[in-house]
């Protein structure tokens, strides 16, 4: 038994052990057996995309398995060419000098001088360059460990056994279409774990939601059995700082159970679940309402009462939408609310809503924000609104005794669309939606969902 304050790893017969007693070598060997690798051929793990969560996720794997150099090779791809502006370079220099361990590491690697020169404006740093030293542009205040960074996509992925998709959902299809060119001659099928939280709407005779895992499947031809989704109520910098967290890896049993074991760490507990698409969609849905939560918080001077009113309405809309998407929506309530809660507290989408509301950001600046990355809730607002506006999905509104598009029962979603997408109203209009005297009790919306057969499997591309 290992008590509080004990080392997270221990040694037994020369093997590095986790707190649960299984060696890291055994975990690697199990994955290699499943993939079909021959003795002496290392497991190749590649992160695609170097945003905050993608970088932290690869860093955690590097710190856990990087010592097994004969067994595991870990690298991360990011696009080349992005420069670090002077203000960011100055802030990065302050971060470096505030952390003795980081300062000593850079001096030891003969990498400190370039940060001095960048601070003085005598040199331009690049995002891929500083990532090699453990600095991700989206979380400059949280230095990571040094990483093997590759800027050539073909070099990064052509022989990868496991690919971690750390791209925004809006970039996933394009990048994986390029990756597919490099996988045409492959004999073995790679495994892809997607971290992306976002959706697209495919409209037509049978409207449906397209998730990042489905984009990857369509772009590369990798079977869905080999594509998984990992998500949970997590803030990247806190996870790297070893705040206790949990996540679910969802997909086919063949891969999700051994990968859950492989990814699990003392501070990062990974469970597994077979319901891939629904969990993935819920990860995108909470981003929609997080933007509105940020607006409400800023516009009401962090009023606890106003925020609770908003929370009641947005959660009732999310529950209503899950009844359209899931045959057993009750099973999603816990994971969805937990993910929503942490996103509303500290996520980038809530931050974005706050900054819009107080005028520090504008919609004209786009949804890719310096120091934060892609605000995926914006594209998700469009996708959910357009999907739930389709007349083919009409549901009965018992109060009016007529069939309406599902979006008509989601006033918060409608207002966010009018603010963010068609820009009909300013951010302040979110309060109009909350204070609308004709708005139903949130409980009524939940009762409508629970008392009627709303489930639409076609929305997930499934047959009834």
Blueprint of the fold:
Blueprint: E1 10-12, E2 15-17, H1 24-35, E3 43-48, H2 52-65, E4 72-77, E5 83-84, H3 86-98, H4 100-108, H5 112-119, E6 125-126, H6 127-132, E7 149-150, H7 153-157, E8 162-165, H8 169-182, E9 191-194, E10 200-202, E11 208-210, H9 212-220, E12 227-231, H10 236-240, E13 245-250, H11 253-263, E14 268-273, H12 276-299, H13 304-325, H14 333-346, H15 348-358, E15 368-369, E16 373-374, H16 376-388, E17 395-397, E18 402-404, H17 411-420, H18 430-434, H19 442-451
Parallel strand pairs: 3-4, 3-8, 4-7, 8-9, 9-12, 13-14
Antiparallel strand pairs: 1-2, 5-6, 10-11, 12-13, 15-16, 17-18
Helix pairs in contact: 1-11, 3-5, 8-9, 12-13, 12-14, 12-15, 12-16, 13-19, 14-15, 16-17
Characterise the protein shown here.
This protein has an eight-stranded mixed sheet, sandwiched between helices. Mean pLDDT is 88; it is low at 1-17. The protein has helices spanning 24-35, 52-65, 86-98, 100-108, 112-119, 127-132, 153-157, 169-182, 212-220, 236-240, 253-263, 276-299, 304-325, 333-346, 348-358, 376-388, 411-420, 430-434, 442-451; strands at 10-12, 15-17, 43-48, 72-77, 83-84, 125-126, 149-150, 162-165, 191-194, 200-202, 208-210, 227-231, 245-250, 268-273, 368-369, 373-374, 395-397, 402-404. With 464 residues, the protein is an alpha/beta fold. The chain is built from 19 helices and 18 strands. Helix 12 (276-299) runs parallel beside helix 15. The longest helix has 24 residues, at 276-299. Helix content is 46%, strand content 14%. Strand 10 and strand 11 form a beta hairpin.
Supply the key terms.
464 residues; alpha/beta; eight-stranded mixed beta sheet; two-stranded antiparallel ribbon; 19 helices
């Amino acid at each position: 038994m290992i008590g509080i304050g004990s080392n997270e790893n221990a040694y037994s017969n020369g093997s590095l052990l986790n707190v649960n007693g299984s060696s890291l070598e055994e975990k690697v060997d199990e994955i290699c057996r499943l993939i079909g690798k021959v003795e002496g051929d290392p497991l190749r793990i590649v992160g695609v995309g170097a945003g905050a969560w993608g970088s932290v996720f690869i860093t955690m794997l590097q710190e856990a398995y990087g010592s097994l150099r004969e067994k595991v090779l870990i690298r991360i791809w990011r696009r080349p060419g992005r420069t670090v502006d002077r203000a960011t370079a100055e802030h990065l220099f302050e971060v470096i000098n505030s952390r003795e361990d980081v300062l000593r590491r850079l001096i030891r690697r003969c990498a400190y001088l370039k940060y001095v020169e960048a601070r003085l404006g005598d040199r331009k740093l690049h995002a891929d360059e500083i990532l090699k030293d453990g600095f991700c542009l989206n979380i400059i205040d949280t230095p990571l460990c040094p990483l093997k960074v590759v800027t050539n996509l073909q070099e990064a992925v052509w022989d990868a056994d496991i690919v971690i998709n750390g791209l925004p959902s809006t970039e996933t299809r394009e990048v994986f279409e390029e990756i597919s060119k490099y996988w045409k001659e492959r004999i073995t099928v790679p495994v892809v774990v997607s971290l992306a939280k976002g959706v697209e709407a495919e409209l037509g005779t049978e409207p449906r939601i397209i998730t990042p895992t489905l984009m990857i499947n369509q772009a590369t031809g990798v079977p869905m059995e080999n594509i998984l989704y990992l998500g949970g109520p997590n803030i990247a910098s806190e996870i790297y700082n070893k705040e206790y967290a949990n996540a679910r890896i969802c997909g086919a049993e063949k891969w999700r159970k051994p990968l859950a074991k492989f990814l699990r760490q003392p501070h990062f507990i990974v469970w597994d679940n077979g319901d891939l698409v629904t969990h993935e969609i819920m990860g995108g849905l909470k981003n929609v309402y997080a933007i509105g939560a940020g607006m409400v918080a800023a516009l009401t001077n962090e009023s606890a009462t106003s925020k609770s009113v908003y929370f009641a309405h947005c959660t009732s809309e999310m529950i209503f939408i899950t009844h359209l998407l899931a045959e057993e929506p009750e099973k999603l309530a816990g994971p969805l609310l937990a993910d929503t809660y942490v996103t509303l507290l500290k996520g980038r989408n809530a931050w974005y809503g706050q900054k819009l509301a107080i005028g520090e950001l504008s919609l004209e600046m786009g949804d890719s924000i310096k120091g934060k990355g892609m605000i995926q809730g914006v594209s998700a607002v469009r996708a959910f609104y357009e999907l739930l506006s389709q007349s083919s999905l009409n549901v009965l509104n018992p109060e009016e005794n007529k069939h309406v598009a599902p979006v008509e029962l989601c006033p918060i979603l409608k207002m966010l669309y009018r603010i963010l997408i068609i820009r009909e109203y300013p951010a302040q209009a979110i309060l109009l939606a909350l204070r609308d005297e004709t708005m139903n009790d949130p409980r009524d919306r939940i009762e409508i969902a629970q008392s009627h057969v709303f489930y639409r499997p076609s929305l997930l591309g499934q047959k009834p």
